């Protein structure tokens, strides 16, 4: 009787409405799940790469903005430096011009003094027995 009851039970199980899982259908479901998992993993990797690329682009944008600000500061400093250099050149030229004028004025005064002393020497030699000491004169401009 055990065999009759087990066949009756198996018949009642087979005849019940529902899903019957066979080895092939289980393999197909398992394959679908594995494929879906692989696709989800690939999608996650792609999304991660896109996020990392987006983050890199944002960092590059910030770096470029900072570099542009620094470049503007450098241009401003270069302009300021050019102004200071031009001011230095102008001052140097003015000082050289003033020193040249002073040198000419000193040479002119020295020559006038030399001519006055020669006139006094000639006068003293003519009217008296005044002896003039000899010394070297350098009246040429150096």
Summarize the entry for a quick read.
This protein has 142 residues and is mainly alpha-helical. Helix content is 84%, strand content 0%.
Task: Note down, in words, how this protein is organized.
With 142 residues, the chain is mainly alpha-helical. It has helices at 2-15, 23-127.
Average predicted confidence as pLDDT = 85
- Given as residue ranges, the uncertain stretches (5+ residues, pLDDT < 50) are none
Q: Which structural class best describes the helix and strand composition?
A: mainly alpha
Note the beta-strand portion. Answer: under 5%
Q: Helicity, in percent?
A: over 70%
Number of strands: 0
Q: Please work out how many helical segments DSSP would assign.
A: 2
Shape: rod-shaped
List SSEs in N-to-C order. HH
- End-to-end Cα distance, whole Å, is 145 Å
Question: What value does the Rg take, in angstroms?
Answer: 56 Å
Major sheet size, sense and barrel closure = none
Properties at a glance:
142 residues; mainly alpha
Question: Secondary-structure map with pairings?
Answer:
Layout: H1 2-15, H2 23-127
């Amino acid at each position: 009787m055990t065999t009759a009851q087990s066949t009756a039970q198996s018949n009642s199980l087979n005849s019940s409405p529902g899903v019957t899982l066979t080895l092939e259908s289980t393999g197909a479901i398992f394959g679908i799940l594995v494929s879906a998992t692989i696709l989800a993993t690939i999608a996650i990797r792609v999304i991660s790469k896109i996020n990392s690329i987006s983050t890199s682009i944002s960092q590059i944008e910030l770096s470029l903005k900072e570099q542009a600000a620094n470049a503007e500061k450098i241009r401003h400093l270069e302009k300021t430096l050019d102004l200071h250099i031009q001011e230095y050149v102008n001052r140097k030229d003015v000082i050289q011009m003033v020193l040249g004028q002073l040198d000419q004025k000193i040479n002119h005064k020295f020559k006038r003094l030399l001519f006055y002393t020669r006139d006094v020497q000639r006068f003293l030699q003519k009217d008296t027995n005044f002896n003039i000491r000899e010394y070297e004169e350098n009246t040429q401009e150096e």
